[in-house]
Design a protein that fits this description.
Blueprint lengths: L2 H17 L2 E5 L11 E5 L6 H12 L4 E5 L13 E3 L5 H17 L4 E4 L17 H10 L4 E10 L7 E6 L10 H13 L6 E6 L4 H4 L6 H4 L4
Parallel strand pairs: 1-7, 2-5, 2-6, 3-4, 3-5
Antiparallel strand pairs: 1-8, 6-7
Length: about 230
């Protein structure tokens, strides 16, 4: 194991455990996916969405993953876990990332490209924002061998000191066909309804203070202040 990669993975797990009480997969586990290159497209409503999808694709589904990151130069150490630069003002570096991704697909057909078609982080109250369908089709033309898989992410509270992250996947489809926003929006709205469904734990976060501490032994002492 590459020690740099191991260190970055440990940092990402720490971020997830600190940020969430748990990460849950809603629905059948494991999802039924082909052994082909995969474009996993998701809504982008939380700062740690990239971490969550790395957890899903690489840690739990055991598939190599990559993500195109506009702010790569600020956090270059994420290259150790497959992240690649995609700076808006540098077409040469974007083209190099596109070619490199194609090579990764050919070298390991189980590779997952994590893609946020909304682009920038969005407010959850706005739902799944409209995105550039031509950009989606362009990726489809670049990688015709890849199948497309919508995954919705919803962060909610279950009465604890930190939130729970819920992930749910839809049916994969053979190619980008212009229905991606509709598919993702339907999946995300379904996840937000909160209807009880079977779920599988992907990660347990750190326990909150109320789960760790119990000072009932000091009750009589503090009754003087009542």
């Amino acid at each position: 194991m590459d020690p740099v990669r191991a260190a970055v993975e440990a940092l990402m797990r720490h971020d997830l455990r600190s940020g969430f009480r748990r990460v849950e997969w809603v629905g059948t586990w494991p999802p039924d996916l082909p052994d082909r290159p995969l474009v996993l497209y998701a809504n982008h409503h939380h700062y740690f969405d990239g971490h969550l999808l790395w957890l899903l694709a690489t840690e739990r589904l055991h598939r190599p993953s990559t993500l195109w990151m506009a702010e790569f130069d600020t956090f270059p150490f994420f290259a150790a876990v497959g992240v690649q630069p995609f700076p808006p003002q540098d077409p040469a570096r974007r083209a190099a990332t596109i070619r490199r991704t194609g090579r990764r697909f050919r070298q390991d057909p189980r590779t997952v490209l994590v893609y946020f078609p909304e682009g920038e982080l969005q407010a959850p109250d706005d739902g799944v924002r409209a995105f550039d369908t031509e950009g989606v089709r362009r990726i489809g033309r670049l990688y015709p061998e890849a199948v497309w898989w919508p995954v919705a992410i919803h962060v909610t509270w279950w009465g604890e000191s930190s939130p729970t992250a819920l992930l749910q996947g839809g049916r994969w489809h053979e190619q980008a066909d212009g229905s991606e926003r509709e598919r993702l929006s339907t999946l995300w709205r379904d996840l937000r309804t909160g209807v009880p469904r079977a779920s599988t734990s992907l990660l347990d976060g750190y326990r909150g203070a109320s789960e760790i501490w119990n000072f009932s032994f000091a009750r009589r002492f503090f009754e003087r202040y009542l």
